[in-house]
Amino acid sequence: MKVVIKVTLFYLLGIIGILCISVFPQFFAKGDITNIILYFHDLWKFLGNFIQPGSWTYQIEGSIGEFPILKTLWVPFTYSMSILFSAICTAFAIAFILAFFVNSLPKQVVQGIKQFLEFLETIPDLVFVVLLQMLVIYIYNKTGVSLFTLGSYMDDRAYAGPIITLSILPMIFLFKILLFLIEEEFSKDYVRFLKSKGLSKTVILIRHVFRNILPSAFHQSKLIIWATLSSQFIIERIFNVNGLTFYIIESFSPMTIAVSLILLFTPFFITFQLIDLWVDESTTFESHGLAKIPSFQPISCVMKHIKIIHWKKLLPRIPIASLRRQLKNYKFAIGCLFFILTIGGSIGYSIITDNHVDQANIFYEEDGTTIKSTPPHPPIVIRFYWVLIKRDLICWIS
Predict the structure, then answer these.
(1) Core-most of 6, 16, 221, 381, by most CB within 10 Å?
(2) Pick the CATH number of 73-250 from 2.40.330, 1.20.58, 1.20.5, 1.10.3720
(3) pLDDT score, position 72
């Protein structure tokens, strides 16, 4: 009963937090961010609308149409979740398989793989996306074989590209974590005891080590999953995936943000809570055959964490010194250099070219959606559309 109350309370607290966050974009758009009373006024007004199911509508700014928000967001939500869960399952499966096979290699090779993984961690998702798209285009130009769709268009949805690129970094992070956990587990006494009984390294790894590192790998995977979810926003934009993030941007209202975040929060919360219960039951110390469930004391837990905060480290001069120390880490330095060059190049290009962007003319069929020709256009198509343009111009002048 305590567990049910605890899970329900945590879920309600999560919903309340989502509702409070959903009002921030509207509050910031008004410009007066120092007026805290205005924020609570907007929050109270939004809560009044949220508890009324009739106000759950999806509306784009400038449009008079209103649609049921759950019905509107459900299809893009399932599309985004299918990509996300496929990427996570792919990353976890590949990471466990690689960890199993790499563990049989010599230690020198394993150390080299760890250093290579540390280098891959510094590469942003955007680089993987660009390289993967360039590879697909290159193979298509050379062989005429299209490995997968590079972007969604109408009913032709892209799956393989977003799933592959979204699974790369989670696979790298989890693979590295598993290597460290396996290495630490093999240094324990029970592994030496099993080796003395004649068990092979493979049997120990499958029957004992993997089972013991699963709880630690699960707790580490929470951060990996949330980082993957944040990366999905960029992946969907690049592959033109009309998923949940597309609809959030189109209607950046508190109601759309709240409902979208609740749809994302609920399945992950339920999944994590169920796995947490399973992990706690399998790892909690048993006394007299009964597992002890830790008591839920939220006030004492919060006070405990407040006491351990190093308040002196929050002084203004400390972050500068901390940044200098972080720059000595080559992974952090490479990541910062990438973003500095990217942002600096973007700013420089905007100043030099006056925000000029090369545009390509795409010719469509009469229905206005089917693409007829893309650059470079055949001469016949160009002449045909030039005749149409001249005809329309003459009619307009006359």
Answers:
(1) 221
(2) 1.10.3720
(3) 86
